[in-house]
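Good day; I would like, with your permission, to put a structural problem before you. I would ask you to consider whether the tokens describe a fold that such a sequence might reasonably adopt. The full record is reproduced below for your convenience:
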Amino acid sequence: MSDLPLHSRPLPPVAPRIEQVTQLHGDTRVDPYAWMRDRDNPDVTAYLEAENAYTEAMTAHTKPLQEQLYREMLGRIQEDDATVPVRRGAWVYYSRTEQGKAYPIYCRKGAQAQAREEVIFDQNAEAAGHEFYQLGALEVSPDHGRLAILEDVTGYEDFTLRVRDLSTGAWLADRVEKLGFGLAWASDGRTLFYTTTDEAKRSDRVWRHTLGAARDADVETFHEPGVLNNVGVHRARSGDFVVITSASFTDGEVWLVPSASPDARPVLVRARRESVEYDVEPGDGWLYVCTNDDAPNFKVMRAPVADPGAWRDWLPHRPDVFVEGVHVFKRFVVVQERQRGLRMLRVTDLERDETHEISFPQAAYGISVASNPEFDQQELRFTYSSLATPETVFDYDLRSRARVVRKKEPVLGGYDESQYAVERLEATARDGTTVPISLVYRTPFVRDGARPLLLYAYGSYGYTVEPTFSAPRVSLLDRGFAFAIAHVRGGQEMGRSWYDDGKMQKKLNTFTDFIDVADHLVQERYTSADRMAAHGGSAGGLLMGVVANLRPDLFRTIVADVPFVDVINTMLDDSIPLTAQEWLQWGSPHDAEAYAYIRRYSPYDNVAVQAYPRLLVTSGVNDSRVAFWEPAKWVAKLRTLNTGSAPILLKMNMGAGHGGASGRYERLRETAFRYAFVVEQ
């Protein structure tokens, strides 16, 4: 990419400024780009289209590289593929993909040998004619007679409920629009529970729908008036209950509806208490409760179904082990926990009262428990991968402890994982905290500072970034790149305190951890500042924005996807989707102390007169989580104050939302575009 001054290229026109002046807590802020919030303003659309044209012009010379990367990544994918079948009653369910088709095809067969395949949902057919198409849920009724889906055709996550009769393939007349996430069948196969959202797009109500009934006949089952809470609904694995949750980031409660009596009044498990979180998994006569009640790293308690509030310790709190969740079966309980930053599985045989752990070999890896829909089963399905090992599906016998590989993700094109090395490093943060780093590269590797390196992080909401495999990433590794994950505070890699130390009035730890990790990688000669790129998305895009302001000298280039960068303005406006709940993550700027703290790092408010590195910023106009105007305003302000000649580009998807394109081929093209921007530097 050329380093010619920006005035040598056609910049997008900026509409006349209508400054927004805000005075709060004795501080005055001027926002010259507030006009970009008006999505119905033709000037805004014209500006975004001009930004896209500018980005297209500035990256036109990388088109051959983009195409080469795309072909490489596509060439590693087995386009005609299928998932491992999952047994549910008398059926096995799976999905498959076909060459040239962007979406999965969902199928089933009778469990008997030589059974004929039934296509229950072809997402390609339903996506035809739509620029964007995603599923929010796909649920087969308990009697296997009907399929219910939630579909979104804009990316704004406004879902429509549709129901198909699987015996005829016909869609029923039932159609309910503008729904949130969450869908659950009652045991009768005729009753569905779903959620709706309020004006700020907060899931606040659960409804009961009977097939064939009109929308206005649906019954409100639960309402959560508190603006800090989101509601959810799902069917328990045991099949005995429809579970309704209401949770904020710091507390919540659970309600149970007997699946056999869907019109029954929900039963509260235990009333919410300040700073107490809990989840409930029904078992055989017991409710298993994962909670932080007097247990900072969480523990598992148990209560009789007949007396749901009578909690008793089942797996006591252990300060050095973080309990992430519990998977309950009729005869076994699997606890998902984290030790020394890595995920473990703890298995308890309820009949024999025996406990063991499932162990894993590599220095850095990721595992995830699959859906395992059958309540009475002796095998646990989970997936395993590392930064060098493709995803591998295991069936694990919970009693004999034997594990069988059911499938290893095919990586075509001669990929040989033995040619890649994975390391687990540690960097010392400025306050003395040890921050883990997961690293992968192609061997041989010489630590001379000459290797380019892409450093990724997220660091918010307690979300843990697992060091797992990515087939597209091989295109970077084979070009000499190392790839590293900075497991910064704000996630939960090292337990609950890791999350608590990276939010609210400790949020700056997330940003300084990332900088200290980058400095460590340079000092240890894994790379150098002029050969290092940074990448993050959403709240990780906030991280990119802060890093760009604090240490623009530390990175050659930065990629920020759907970045949350206008923190103060967004957190002051609770009409924006999700804002009120976010006060428990960032603090409310209505409070003077919280305002002062956020003011220290909010990327948009801290853009400075300085030279910035090369920046690629992506977004989508239908994003309901991070509004498109945040990155658009940020890019405009960066261009105004940037004293350097490095390009700052905005790529706006005009037909998608927070997750970008929905089809697998378009997703690969988006990845190829990002990688070309990084590789070309």
Summary: Residues 87-129 form one domain. The chain has a mean pLDDT of 95. The longest helix spans residues 42-58. Residues 156 and 514 are 31 Å apart (CA to CA).
